[in-house]
Amino acid sequence: MPTRDHSSLAVEEYFLLWAARRSGVLGALLDTAGSPEAVAREADVTEHAARVVIDSLSDLGFVKQVGAEYEITNRALGFLAKRDVRSIGRLPHTLDMFDMWTDLPETMQTGDAPALPDEWTRNRLGAHAATDDATVRARVTAAVREAPNADCVLDICGASGAYAIEFAARGYEATLLDAPAVIDAVAPMLGHRDVRTVAANVPAFETDDQYGLVFAADVTSRYDAAANRTLLGHAFDALEPGGTLVLVDTLRDGSPAAVRARIRALGVGHGDAYSAETYRTWLDEAGFSAVSVRPVPGDERTAVIARRPERAVD
């Protein structure tokens, strides 16, 4: 089962975890050191700092005292177990984003994307795998309503496979397409869930098959305008004539969700939240027709829907 941390941590608590990881205190606890004194020596921090951090981690349930030493609890396994992304949870990726945001002033000055933290891909997949079931169902439902006659679906940049698994559970022939490093991480978990995996270069991906429904959730906000034009052009080619494209993402509409999406993209160094009109322009350029924009019921995301015409338009 995926590791799901539904608790709402205060900002100070997130910074505690971030500082514990960044300073080496968390690594020392995970690896060898068990006492505050040993952690202080291993991480090269003061004993007072080590004790405050360890006591706080204990109060939050990430470690527990056993005799004179401390051991990690199941709540901290996401920092240690990386083989199965379902065991990682959201927190490691959140701390990765803290790393990126602390570099944000330099990123803003140079315009260069910062170096990604260690384990970025697996931590991102862990956070994706921990997506609430209700959210997954809402977004998949929004997609299938637009393509009631589709039999097969391509999930572009499907990450952990949370959406592809839901499509398969509803009887669709589901294919997850993503970068090779992602497929290497998730393919062993998806074979028994009736999800086919395809490793490809995104956004300029190629597929051997065509699909009645092409789906992408939180993908276009990761790319700049040129990359999205490329992505949508290849999505058009992946659709069978008359097929449907559904993009579920945060649109630039002045909402708090749009602000969060834009700041996240700024921290990572690429991507943005785009307006409905921008999507319409891109989709029109790619050859799509019948473009519409609808809110996803029960979710703060928006669905952008477009069709590949039955016949080529002269």
Automatic annotation (TrEMBL):
GO terms for molecular function: methyltransferase activity. InterPro entries: SAM-dependent_MTases_sf (IPR029063). It comes from the Archaea. Transmembrane segments: none annotated. It comes from Halogeometricum borinquense. It holds the Pfam family Methyltransf_23. This is Class I SAM-dependent methyltransferase. GO terms for biological process: methylation. Keywords: Methyltransferase, Transferase.
